[in-house]
Amino acid sequence: QVQLVESGGGLVQAGGSLRLSCAASGRTFSGYAMGWFRQAPGKERDFVAAISWSDRSGRSTDYADSVKGRFTISRDNAKNTVYLQMNSLKPEDTAVYYCARDSITYRSSLRRQGFGSWGQGTQVTVSS
């Protein structure tokens, strides 16, 4: 059973930056696509970003339109860690951010669904 532990959340002013990290246990991290999702109070959990399992040269990423150009997802397979660099933060980015692992290994194409393991979440609050 994988364990995902997020860190790096906090309070930041609008326009600022934060870097979230998600450390995964287990030996098969590199074979899974990883994703970030967020849930604001009273709202459903939304997709933020995802990164494929592929080797560095063939790696692909996907972003929600609301964060495209401001957020960057990356991964370090040697450290079993996925990151979310968040720049130019806005108050509407305020939410609990969750790391997630795909439910199957070596999926042929990156998807926004099908993530089967979740972390406990880290709070990001952006003040205006």
Q: Sketch the topology as an H/E string, one letter per element.
A: EEEEEEEEEEE
Arithmetic mean of pLDDT: 94
Number of DSSP strands?
11
Separate helix tally: 0
Q: Quick one: overall form?
A: globular
Distance between the termini: 40 Å
Tell me about the largest β-sheet. Answer: 7 strands, mixed
What's the structural blueprint in terms of helices and strands?
Blueprint: E1 4-7, E2 10-13, E3 18-24, E4 34-39, E5 45-51, E6 61-63, E7 71-76, E8 81-86, E9 95-102, E10 115-118, E11 122-127
Parallel strand pairs: 2-11
Antiparallel strand pairs: 1-3, 3-8, 4-5, 4-9, 5-6, 7-8, 9-10, 9-11
Structure commentary:
The protein is mainly β and 128 residues long. It has no helices and 11 strands. It has strands spanning 4-7, 10-13, 18-24, 34-39, 45-51, 61-63, 71-76, 81-86, 95-102, 115-118, 122-127. Strands 2, 4, 5, 6, 9, 10 and 11 form a 7-stranded mixed sheet that branches. It has a 4-stranded antiparallel sheet with strand order 1-3-8-7, with no helix packed on it. A hairpin with a 4-residue loop joins strand 7 (71-76) and strand 8. The radius of gyration is 14 Å and the shape is globular.
